[in-house]
Amino acid sequence: MTIASNSLTEAPAESRVTAGVSQGDVSDFFALLKPRVMFLVVFTALVGMVVVHPDVNPVLAFASLLMIAVGGGASGCLNMWWDADIDAVMTRTRKRPIPAGKIQPGEALAFGLTLSAGSVIVLGLASNWLAAGLLAFTIFFYVVVYSMWLKRSTPQNIVIGGAAGALPPIVAQAAVTGHVGWESVILFAIIFIWTPPHFWALALVKSGDYERAGIPMMPNVAGPDSTRRQILAYTILLAPLGLAPVLYGFGGLAYAIIATIGGLGMLALAAQVYRLREGEPAMRVAQQLFGFSILYLFLLFATLLAEHGLGFFRPVMG
Amino acid sequence: MVDQIPPPRLTPEEQKRRRKRSLVIALTLGALVVLFYVVTIAKMGPQVLQRPL
């Protein structure tokens, strides 16, 4: 954090600032919550809720979902606080509020800790303490285990750290049922196995950025060829795993079709990434895999949401 | 006699941002009050309003 602190004491050049006074706009504080990640957290958590058709008051389900969203945002905020030094040297992240000098690290830390504690306590009061404990564990895992420990020390960072991003469906199911069922565990497994090919495709394209920031991403440590091999291996696992909800009876006909086509699309792109290793075509196909992986996960979860939330469910098994 | 530290003089832009932040904090606190109220009613049911006078 030393580099970040040194660079952040410099005031923004465009205007005079008063010492000790927050320069952050409301939108800067909102940006600290990583709104796009927060949307994914809410979306996957909502699916984790609806697939079990819980007998729960909608107000309590909404309050639980809101607190899971706030908890997800809080962990993003704490991640930005910790990673401000590396965010400042990466093109993708240098405009974030802390490296841009709009918010002081101490403000982000206080904001993140307050939201973390608040979201866990309110979730416990609104639903149950199992869900609250799981949310606290998710925040801890993302901030301490992933951000503080794994991210800068091992190329397996996003593999293990991916568990934090995969936990929201489990927290959500615990919030509305009081226990953790296999539906949410399967959703967890899908997101968990999806994470490496998704992030490593981006890491292949942005390897220079990660190199500059000193983050040991797989392409920088094991090399692009090994990364391509591992992307293909994880995608071979992911494609059939995407069909697991059908086998377990909560993925219907529409889901089976989407998961099959999407899985084949992921496999085709991963095979292309494995095959094309040089120059612009290699970068382009890696970028395509990154983009398609987002669409793939979104479609899987959106289809489950439509089947269970809107009544489109047509069973395939039994 | 304790020396008073004068409050910092804010630029108009800083004042505007502070006002906006304060407004959002106030709205958030109001939303939390509503949230706690509806969660209480949802958890305890309408009988929470019935009590001996």
UniProtKB/TrEMBL annotation, chain A:
It is found in: Cell membrane. PANTHER family: 4-HYDROXYBENZOATE SOLANESYLTRANSFERASE (PTHR43448:SF7), PROTOHEME IX FARNESYLTRANSFERASE, MITOCHONDRIAL (PTHR43448). The keyword Zinc does not apply. Keywords: Cell membrane, Heme biosynthesis, Membrane, Transferase, Transmembrane, Transmembrane helix. Its main location: membrane. One of its GO terms (biological process) is heme O biosynthetic process. Gene3D superfamilies: UbiA prenyltransferase. The chain crosses the membrane at residues 37-53, 59-82, 103-123, 129-150, 157-176, 182-205, 231-248, 254-274, 286-306. One of its GO terms (cellular component) is plasma membrane. This is Protoheme IX farnesyltransferase. It catalyses: heme b + (2E,6E)-farnesyl diphosphate + H2O = Fe(II)-heme o + diphosphate. The gene is ctaB. Belongs to the UbiA prenyltransferase family. Protoheme IX farnesyltransferase subfamily. It is a multi-pass membrane protein. Carbon 2 of the heme B porphyrin ring is defined according to the Fischer nomenclature. The lineage of its organism: Bacteria, Pseudomonadati, Pseudomonadota, Alphaproteobacteria, Hyphomicrobiales. HAMAP family: CyoE_CtaB (MF_00154).
TrEMBL record, chain B:
Keywords: Membrane, Transmembrane, Transmembrane helix. The keyword Membrane applies. The chain crosses the membrane at residues 23-42. The keyword Transmembrane helix applies. This is CoxF protein. It comes from the Bacteria.
